[in-house]
Amino acid sequence: MLRARIVLLCAEGETIARVAERVGVSRNTVSKWRSRFLADRLDGLADQTRPGRPRTITDAQVERVVTATLQDTPGSDTHWSTRSMAASTGMSQSTISRIWRAFGLKPRIVQTCKLSSDPQFVDKVRDVVGLYMNPPDNPLVLAADEKSQMQAIDRTAPILPIMPTTPARMTHGYIRHGTTSLFAALDLSSGSVIAQHYRRHRHQEFLRFLKLIDDAVPKDLDLHLVLDDYATHKTEPVKKWLIPLPRFRLHFTPTSSSWLNLVERWFAELTNRKLRHSAHRSVVELERDGWIN
Question: pTM of the predicted model, to two decimals?
């Protein structure tokens, strides 16, 4: 397909440089297939016989391996390994590995997913995604959630620093020094974050965080908050507090769909950049370190 496209573009009068840019290959590649087509026409676009050991695995054998990988299982096992497939087909493990790599087959890997049982799944997705894609002009859109049970963990031995050819090393053993919960609201327009640590994550702390948002955001702006359906977000005290504050409008993600809340992306960055490779001797130290700009 690539070779035919090169030839067709050259036939339209395109220069070698322009064809290389449009197809995404080097100029030498374009020149090679153009010259071979001019010399041998369509036969010039076929692969030439290459030197080296003749191929010993037939297309039928490759098809057998691929079909068995996709449709069968090895006896009582749940999935194929290179050893079991090699024993079944009479080929070598390295041959099975090459075939699997060529077709992108990884029988040992299973990706898990969580299906939402929310009867209003479609409506909620449209509401939240529509808010992201086409936010109102004046109101502020905040994606809010809490990262609960953040543990202040110290290692049983000092972390050894990274060195040439040697990664940083830390012990498996650790000592717990308490937990904290980080409440955060991500401003989708600016990327700024309103955040506060609390030692618990009940509806009382959520209500305190809503009051913090109310104080931090100018009063002339309406607030659209994207939240998950965690029970603390829907308690009676929270609902009563919101009644005289019509500028707060809550948008709930579907059940088991916290991935729709963009503040989770900020939490992931916090974990990767600040928490995963760190050690903290107290909750206060963790709270001071648990933040990224």
Answer: 0.69
